[in-house]
# Entry
Amino acid sequence: MERQKILIVIALLFITMRILYQAFPADEATEENQFNEEGLALPQPGKSNNISVRQAMQDRRSIRGYRDEELSLYEVSELAWAAQGITNEEGYRTAPSAGATYPLELFLAVGEPGVSNLESGLFRYIPEEHSIKEKSEQNVKEEIVEAALGQNFIKEAPVAFIIGAEYNRTTDVYGDRGKRYVKMEAGHAAQNMYLMSETLGLGMVTVGAFNDEDLKDFVGMEAEPVYIIPVGRPE
Ligand SMILES: Cc1cc2nc3c(=O)[nH]c(=O)nc-3n(C[C@H](O)[C@H](O)[C@H](O)COP(=O)(O)O)c2cc1C
# Structure
């Protein structure tokens, strides 16, 4: 009888902890936000909210004015997952990909204000680990604005995502036609981000007007840039 009571208490404790964890996920990882060889693990995505996909489509708008406020690491986690998160054991992702060749690379330029408990810098999203890896400690927001023909609002956003493409992953399979598949895929990933951003109460815009070579240079990326996507809290 006594043993049964202990088991019930343990079960209740376990359930309470699960409920608390779901209500308050490990938003900011830890204060240290330690990077290891795999990079910085992002908080588990998937905290539920009550906005339907339909509502998000209805309300989505391109937003170019952002409050001077940080994003949380959880918000970054959700946005990266929306763009390129892995959703099954075979490595398939949130966005469709011609022949599942996955040519897209997702970069994050974090400035000031940026992301809570994260230093400014350039990072790459690693879908397999749902983590980010640091590429450099530089805040390159000014340079990104310059590459983007002076679109100054990019600088005001706490995070500018950059979708880059390794075309050969897809053209090796589909030849020249693969180029169009890659650009289509970037559109799918970006639309996922628009909808996710809407459900998080954030604002973003897909920016296609920029000088490719300048952007590659400033960001130090080998992938071909397709989109710059500044995200922040709408003004
Ligand atoms: C391929 C593409 C490129 C775009 N490039 C830019 C851009 O360089 N700068 C910008 O401010 N908006 C850009 N936009 C956003 C459009 O201006 C925006 O989607 C359009 O005005 C419709 O507004 P909505 O997104 O709020 O519906 C781009 C959108 C797409 C699809």
Summary: The helical segments are 2-23, 53-59, 73-84, 141-147, 153-156, 168-174, 178-199, 212-219.
